[in-house]
Amino acid sequence: MSRYVMVIDTRRCVGCHDCVVACKTENGVPEGYSRDWIVEEAHGTYPTVQLEIRSERCNHCDNPPCVSCCPTGASHVHERGGVVLVTHDKCIGCKACLAACPYDARFIHPDGYADKCTFCIHRVEAGLDPACVSVCPTHCMHFGDIEDPLSEVSRLLNSRPRHTLIPEAGTKPCIFYLT
Amino acid sequence: MITLTELTVSRHNPLVDPTLHVWQWQIPVYLFLGGLVAGLMIIAGVRLIAIRPKQRAALVCCTIGPIIGLAFLSLGMFVLFLDLAHKLYVWRLYTTFQVTSPMSWGSWILLLVYPALLANALTHLPEAIPALAKRFPVLVTWSDFILARERLVLAIGIANVLVGIALGIYTGILLGTLGARPLWNSALLGPLFLFSGLSTAAAVLHGVLVLTTPDEERPAFADFLLSSLARLVEARPLDKKVGPVLAGADNSFLTIELGLLGLFLIGLLSSTGAQQQAAALLLTGPYAAVFWVFVIGMGIVLPLVLQTLELDNRIQHTLAPAMLVVFGGLALRFILVYAGQESHWLQALN
Fold it and tell me: Is the backbone of residue B239 left (phi > 0), alpha (psi -120 to 50) or beta?
């Protein structure tokens, strides 16, 4: 069983928004909406302040609350790589999944269904990287199978300290940020 | 020296940023109506079980309550439908059962509510609303059919109580299972919404009784509120015992609701930083004025005092406590839905 994850090197990310533009172009994300976005987190006591720049999106959690709360089964875990997806013609637009996501990664598409990052599963199934990963000019984003000990993501996770977002929410997110 | 964390987010998704506000007025109104219907079912069921077979008394609880419940349930489901963003696919709710989804449970529970309420309403309908029975004689046939079978009457009563409890608790669990919003992160929301529903149901029935008292005893300000429903039962002799029983029951429900609200807040305040900040939204934050004045003061404490005075025969039974309880129940749902969406795990970073 494969388990797709994303590893993002926050020491390389410069917040250029290339990943955001690539996602919107590849997936036809409507104007005014975003499946991925940039967060700048400044932390510390002035003047000793640290800045972390992150490219964020759906965390394709191992314990996804958006899937367990869905009343129709529209939100589901894809058989390939544990990717969390939404079947558009099963979604009733009840917005429970939006309220259930601690990362606020979902939105209601103007056509009425819940929408979010798909890890570009259509590209991955064709043997390509997600659009955001493929365009990153600093090569800070990596995509792969964490179950494969020889994969690039496994190697990176074993070699560098990392963190996930809001681990206390208990969702077991699958996007890792190298620090 | 203060250590701060400051986030700058480039995302501006509608209904999500800067704080989540995907659920507007429709959801609190639906949760309120769901709780009210649950309360009406439980009271109707208990009253039906408590009445001796073939005893034919004026039955506001057993007949008027379920009829009001059917109307409110339909209104609630319509309001819920209005909230859906993908309305044409609503039928998808009934092609599956998702065991981990409270909303899926709720959609199937709502289907059970209709027949249970209808059966309860039919059981004593000819006695409670003779004008309607005269126009539609088949109602008498159905009522006689049910009343001739003691076990069926008992089953209808028990079904109303059980489905009512499931409906009332589900409206709270619906929010309680959404762990991403720290304010909702409590199983106590289930019983809290159940008892809030019971108190509003008792208040509504109490209000109906007040509206249907003989002219000389009716509060003057209630005259203009008399509905056609009230006029239908106007000629009925009042069950003088039911009014005080409902007011007493309402006081009990309000007291339990107040206790559950206290436990709910204690639970949040003794939990993580995110939950503490969520509780502060209600206690001292932007929702504090509405919470203390409308939910606690006017929605629970004031009607408790008024109904206690009514039960002591110090003041006349009026519509005021009923209206306050209904308003308080609605305010509770509004404040919890809106403040809950505003609460977030990231707030605990600061």
Answer: beta
Number of H helices, E strands in chain A: 6, 10
Q: Quote the domain boundaries for residue B309.
A: 26-88+102-344
**Minimum-distance CB partner of A65 among B9, B85, B180:** B180
Q: What is the DSSP string of B227-262?
A: -HHHHHTTTSPP-TTHHHHHHHHHHHHHHHHHHHHH
Task: Out of B4, B12, B85, name the one closest to residue A95 (CB).
Answer: B85
Alpha carbon of A90: minimum distance to chain B alpha carbons (Å): 6
ipTM (interface pTM): 0.92
**Considering the domain boundaries, does residue B349 fall inside one?**
no
The mean pLDDT of A110-136, rounded to a whole number, is 97
CATH fold group of domain A4-178 = Alpha-Beta Plaits (3.30.70)
**pTM (predicted TM-score):** 0.90
State the virtual CA torsion across B149, B39, B203, B281 in degrees, nearest 10. Answer: 180
- Number of separate domains in chain B: 1
- In this structure, what token pair is assigned to residue B181? 């919003």
Burial class from Cβ neighbours inside 10 Å (0-12, 13-18, 19+) for residue B314 reads: exposed
Question: What CATH number should be reported for the domain holding residue B239?
Answer: 1.20.1630.10
For the four alpha carbons of A152, A156, A158 and A159, in that order, the dihedral sign comes to positive
- What pLDDT does residue A46 have? 86
Give the CA dihedral B163, B165, B171, B172, nearest 10 degrees: -160
Task: Please give the Cα distance from B222 to B312 (Å, whole number).
Answer: 22
Domain ranges for chain A: 4-178
**CB-neighbour burial class of residue A153 (10 A; exposed 0-12, middle 13-18, buried 19+):** buried
In this predicted model, what pLDDT tens digit does every residue of B79-121 receive, in sequence order? 999 999 999 999 999 999 999 999 999 999 999 999 999 999 9
Half-sphere exposure of A143 (CA within 13 A, CB side): 22
Interface test with B, best of A31, A95, A171 (most B CBs within 10 A): A95
- CA-nearest residue of chain A to B183? A99
Residue B12 lies in a domain: no
Q: Which regions of chain B are under pLDDT 70? A: 52-59, 212-242, 347-350
E runs forming strands in chain B: 4-9
Give a yes or no: residue B5 inside a domain: no
Cβ of residue A16 closer than 8 Å to a chain B Cβ: no
Is residue B314 included in any domain, yes or no? Answer: yes
